[in-house]
Write a structure and sequence with these properties.
The protein is an alpha/beta fold. The chain has 14 helices and 10 strands. It starts with 5 loop residues before the first strand and ends in a 14-residue tail after the last helix.
Length: 343
């Protein structure tokens, strides 16, 4: 174990970055990309405990994983302690390394059900839920929460203490309030406040916009690790760049060839998991994630709007890769131009 590693409930994790649970985004193909770039831990999409217990095929499919992406954390949301405990046992049986409970989702539908960030203003319900889940599983248990319902951080401190007392092994703080959603700025001081209040690992999340923000958050908050969400969409290389910075090295810029290689790997992975028809339907929007900032990227996004086959996708990608190469060949100092993700 080095200063660049951390543990959750005795599970040793190599690195200091975590790929956040992102609904509709952090599926297996995206998680595999994050792991290949040195992310210490990847998280599933938010999974409905009710859907899992009631046998929804779509929900059960979200539990599918492979050895290459492990260690894997699976995140559940729900409000009924018995249902959550049942779902948690199913997650453990499916092979998850960590179980995470969502205390942070502020989508109206989730809040109306009493789940997500709604649990942060129901401390007794939160306690009952966490204790029921803790009794149901042996794997490490974590929660992901927000500041709460006002900017003071009182809700976060209350839930953090309940989590610690209920046997939770670590927690992640996204320091925005529930009413904020993703607006405004994340107040990293709340991460430090919670970190100082409990004796379990606290992970920081929110407004990590570049690799350079990872060591900055670690210094400012003294958190155990940094969870990255939106900034990793189409840019899994943020994890390897952050690892380089934490090791005292200057990170290499991500070259265009690397980006296209990753994009093609993602295409193959999606087709293998979802089947060609379903994957192509999804990739009409997802492939555009990887070309942000490249020349004529809007034209590429337009060209993939009607993808119907893997072969068609490969043709479009190859044509665009050649177009970008021609553009850079004609540009001064092309190899060092701004067409790369920099920390």
């Amino acid at each position: 174990m080095t200063s660049r590693d951390f543990t959750i409930g005795g599970l040793a994790l190599k690195g200091r970055t975590v790929f956040a649970p992102l609904a509709g985004i952090s599926d297996r193909p995206m998680r595999l990309m994050a792991r290949r770039e040195g992310c210490a831990l990847v998280c599933s999409e938010m999974i409905s405990a009710n859907g899992l217990v009631h046998g929804s095929p779509k929900t059960r499919a979200m539990l599918r994983s492979c050895p290459e992406e492990r260690p894997l954390s699976v995140q559940l949301f729900g409000v009924d302690p018995a249902v959550m405990a049942d779902a948690a046992a199913r997650v453990e049986a499916a092979g998850a390394d960590i179980l995470d409970i969502n205390f942070g989702c502020s989508v109206r539908k989730i809040l109306k059900s009493g789940a997500g960030a709604a649990l942060m203003r129901m401390p007794e319900k939160a306690r009952d839920l966490l204790q029921a889940v803790r009794r149901a599983v042996r794997i490490p248990l974590t929660i992901k929460m927000r500041t709460g319902w006002d900017v003071s951080g009182r809700d976060a401190l209350t839930i953090a203490a309940i989590a610690r007392d209920s046997g939770v092994d670590a927690l992640t703080v996204h320091p925005r309030t529930a009413p904020q959603g993703f607006s405004g700025r994340a107040d990293w001081r709340i991460i430090a406040l919670v970190r100082d209040a409990v004796d379990i690992p606290v992970l920081g999340n929110g407004d990590v916009q570049s690799a350079a923000d990872v060591p900055r958050m670690l210094r400012m908050t003294r958190c155990a690790a940094v969870m990255i969400g939106r900034s990793a969409i189409g840019n899994p290389w943020i994890f390897s760049q952050a690892a380089a910075l934490l090791a005292g090295r200057a990170p290499d810029p991500v070259r265009v060839e690397t980006r296209f290689k990753g994009l093609k790997r993602y295409l193959r992975s999606c087709v293998a998991l979802y089947g060609e028809t379903n994957a192509c339907r999804m990739l009409r929007s997802r492939l555009g994630w990887f070309v942000k900032g490249l020349p004529n990227s809007s034209r590429f996004r337009e060209s993939i709007r009607h993808l119907s086959s893997e072969a068609q996708a490969r043709t479009v990608i190859d044509a665009y890769e050649k177009e970008v190469a021609r553009h850079l060949d004609g540009a001064p100092a092309a190899a060092d131009s701004g067409i790369a993700f920099n920390p």
